[in-house]
Design brief:
46% of the residues lie in helices and 12% in strands. It has a 5-stranded antiparallel β-sheet. The longest helix has 15 residues.
Length: 295
């Protein structure tokens, strides 16, 4: 076991367990007392510490993990107009109450800033899949095509670059559990390996969205997830079956998922992605309002 005193130890009161379990990342495994994972080839362990968490990482990677978990940002100012006593007539009381319940229960939830390529692949895998299986396939790809390395007594694997997956056989990818998504991963990897990946942070939101939806296997929801969980574009508002239920039941919205997404983006603006993630994790965790609208 390496000397942990030589590593960076980042203390935070943010809820990193809820963050990791909220469907944003599939790069971590549960160790029983926390989590271990790697992103961009950088390993880290997450451990519970006196009501908060410690991120243990290599010294040179401390800044990466602070950005990855968005530790320096405050979401309060973005959320305030939509909860509590805010006078926002466009938001129904049931919607405001449900958001307040979710934000209060998971106050320390963070929006991740993951490597873009890894995030695109993760959410192509996510199509018509459940979180447990997505994580398993993601790890299978890393073990099959990534590089293994040891750190602090534990084996990790890098996620393979686009060129590696572009060269992989579709049959081999299918064998990892990807099914029909194997062709999507391979074709998107080829596109990025040949043309490179643009700096999505430097693009305007709509331009970044158009680029992503032009990739094979990247529909609107996958593009929204990739933007929300890896870039500065925090207005992205992915709508799946859970979020659709929230918008219809608590916000009185109607129409297709595309219509729901556009209405939510219009309503919430730059706070949209944060609001979406609080409510998504809340409803999946069993939070709900009673018939009177109280929690």
């Amino acid at each position: 076991m390496a000397d942990e005193a030589a590593y960076a130890r980042i203390y935070t009161g943010h809820d990193l367990s809820a963050t990791i379990k909220s469907g944003q990342t599939f790069a971590f495994t549960d160790t029983g007392g926390g989590f271990a994972g790697a992103a961009d080839g950088r390993p880290a362990e997450i451990r519970v510490n006196d009501g908060g968490y410690i991120i243990i990482a290599r010294e040179d990677d401390a800044g990466f993990w602070r950005r990855y978990f968005d530790l320096e940002a405050s979401y309060d100012d973005l959320l305030q107009p939509f909860i509590g006593a805010a006078e926002t007539n466009a938001i129904p009381e049931t919607g405001r109450s449900f958001l307040e319940l979710c934000a209060g229960t998971f106050k320390g939830l963070r929006l991740l800033r993951q490597p873009v390529w890894e995030t695109i692949c993760a959410f192509i895998i996510s199509a018509n899949n459940n979180i447990g299986r997505i994580g398993s396939i993601y790890m299978n790809i890393s073990r099959r095509y990534g590089d293994a390395f040891m750190w602090n007594g534990r084996e990790y694997h890098t996620f393979p670059p686009a060129a590696t997956l572009a060269a992989a056989g579709e049959g081999d990818l299918r064998g990892l559990g990807l099914g029909y998504r194997a062709a999507y991963i391979q074709k998107t990897a080829e596109t990025i390996a040949i043309g490179g990946l643009p700096d999505l942070d430097a693009l305007e939101y709509e331009e970044a969205f158009r680029y992503l939806t032009g990739l094979r296997g990247v529909g609107e929801k996958v593009a929204e997830c990739a933007l929300l969980f890896s870039t500065r574009h925090r207005r992205a508002f992915p709508v799946d079956v859970w979020v659709e239920r929230i918008l219809r039941e608590y916000f009185g919205m109607g129409g297709s998922r595309r219509v729901l997404r556009r209405e939510a983006e219009k309503l919430f603006g730059e706070a949209g992605g944060i609001i979406q993630q609080y409510m998504f994790h809340g409803i999946r965790s069993g939070l709900k309002l009673n018939e009177a609208g109280d929690n």
